Amino acid sequence: MTAAPTTTDGVLVDRYGRVARDLRVSLTDKCNLRCTYCMPAEGLPWLAGPQLLDDDEIVRLIRVAVHRLGVTEVRFTGGEPLIRPGLARIVGAVAALEPRPRISLTTNGIGLDRLAPTLRAAGLDRVNVSLDTLDPARFAALTRRDRHADVLAGMAGAAAAGLAPVKLNAVLMRGVNDDEAPALLRFALAHGYELRFIEQMPLDAQHGWDRSTMVVADEILAALRAEFTLTADPGERGAAPAETWLVDGGPARVGVIASVTRPFCGDCDRTRLTADGQVRNCLFATEESDLRAALRAGADDEELARRWRAAMWGKRAGHGIDDPTFLQPARPMSAIGG
Ligand code: SAM
Ligand code: SF4
């Protein structure tokens, strides 16, 4: 076991020796879709304006993470990050940090065709766009909004703006879109996008997740192998959540993020900041650490860094979804930042 951190330790290390270098920042808990596995039709009680970090507060906390805590990768998410008005300004400020972190964005893609050139110019490196189905009617049922064409346009716009490689995230749900794995891969290959399937996790606001019916990695891989040859990717996986395979000999790849059936907690290098300034050491953490209160009370950068380190030190060894004692976190994925 590693010794407890002191105020002069630089990095975000936990008691199991894992070092967090990848920061996920939620820019808003709001969204313009209502994916059934994520939030209810009526939406959620959104954070009120004063609860949200403003743009300068967000940039300050990211600066602390990069300058004092060894963060090298910043991923913006939400909710839907593209609906945050200051997004390009925030990206620009983060891209100006020294050393410059890699900057990416996870989005549902709506409006990305219009925003991609501005975000690219501001310093955004890459995007992950969520697409669960190729069928517009299914998309409308799954997201409760008729915006399929906007998402496809968003992906194309991202690729055209040089936000490469465009990665696609797909969640398969039993009886909804679980027959689409090969078709989604065909689509991704045809467009030069890199597809990753994500196992559905117990992070929905409605608590509708069911372990016994979820679509698992083995099933997704079997469906893909009916049409494609998948071979182990010789590349280093490192702390990446996706396990990847070469498709038909490569160089195209497909990935599966099997958080539930093949957990990768032992290699996790992530730390999270919510839109209201709470540090979370895990998606599944049941405790948060309030950096917004400290920041607004006048804490200096080193004090913020100290609190962040202390929050990460307490990270649990694993998410424990399969433990009988598992408790779903109080906040849903859309409020934590997926
Ligand atoms: N709105 C953006 C989007 O949809 O990409 C960013 C936030 S969303 C919470 C991030 C990713 O989490 C999406 O790819 C989404 O499909 C995925 N997601 C949401 N709820 C999930 C759940 N319960 N289990 C697994 N993935 C989930
Ligand atoms: Fe919105 Fe993303 Fe949740 Fe869908 S998964 S409702 S797009 S936050």
TrEMBL record:
Pathway assigned in UniProt: Cofactor biosynthesis; molybdopterin biosynthesis
GO biological process: Mo-molybdopterin cofactor biosynthetic process
HAMAP family, sorted: MoaA_B
Radical SAM core domain mapped to chain residues: 15-241
Binding of [4Fe-4S] cluster 2, residues: C265, C268, C282
Pfam families assigned to the protein according to its UniProt record, in alphabetical order: Mob_synth_C, Radical_SAM
EC annotation from Swiss-Prot or TrEMBL: 4.1.99.22
Cofactor note: Binds 2 [4Fe-4S] clusters. Binds 1 [4Fe-4S] cluster coordinated with 3 cysteines and an exchangeable S-adenosyl-L-methionine and 1 [4Fe-4S] cluster coordinated with 3 cysteines and the GTP-derived substrate.
Binding residues annotated for S-adenosyl-L-methionine, in chain numbering: Y37, G79, S130, M201
Protein name per its UniProtKB record: GTP 3',8-cyclase
